[in-house]
Design brief:
Layout: H1 3-12, E1 31-34, H2 45-55, E2 59-63, H3 68-73, E3 77-81, H4 100-117, E4 121-124, H5 134-155, E5 158-162, H6 177-187, E6 192-197, H7 198-204, H8 208-215, E7 219-224, H9 241-250, E8 256-259, H10 269-279
Parallel strand pairs: 1-8, 2-3, 4-5, 5-6, 6-7, 7-8
Length: 282
Amino acid sequence: MRRREFLAAAAAIPLLRGRQAAFTPHTGRLKQALFRSAFDQSMTFEAMCREAVRLGAHGFDAIEANEWPIMRRMGLVPTLAFPVVTPAPFRDGIARRELHDRFEAALHTQIDQCARDGCAMIPLAGGQRLGMSPEQAADSCVAFFTRVKAHAEEKQITLCIEVMNRYDRPDQCCDHVAWAVDVLRRVNSPRVKLLFDIYHVQIQDGDICRHLRENIQWIAHVHTAGVPGRHEIDERQELNYRFIAETLAELGYDGYVSHEYTPTPGRDPLDGIQRALAIMNV
């Protein structure tokens, strides 16, 4: 799709005229989910869930397990677990061998909880290198995944390592798609996959659709956000998300696409969410 076609499509998306307007749920080829960061932060999570249902989303990423029942009551699902094992700011990740015993115990607990309560995906961070070479960090990540993959396979829970850019997340070892895919190939498990964060990958590697095409077999989850700034994915940033959506759909991607951005100050958060869902509804 040419940029002028993208702009026309974005312009055709109607603005929210009022909070009670009716919207058709998005039933295209991509399943979409949200982050609470996309909303007005004065809203309760229950109110966010009501809007997510109204606008046609499937669920939320990175919600702590004690709030999953709120989603369930409204027909939403936890699409990606909260990063309990390697939480933000992602200094300590699975590249740290001295932390493997502690991480493994915590991950086994989270795998069991997710299997019991219906969340199929757990994110993990490689973490900072802290003096390790890329090869050393990769070896350590492979070793950790090898320790836990049998349990993930048994419970049918997918563990996802995420590429992160080294500007927002300094010194991250998992900083390029090629590095992550090398780890995944060596682990060789159907339950150890890639969390393809388009925002991070655009900053680190660019050429988003080529990377999607070449690595789709490794991708289990996708995040969106506008570059630069990590704001809305509409025409006010550099990526053509409509074309990216078409590419994912053509590749037969069947995981979730989750919108992980923060609204631009002064803009209506619900309008941004409506536009994001419409842009990716192909």
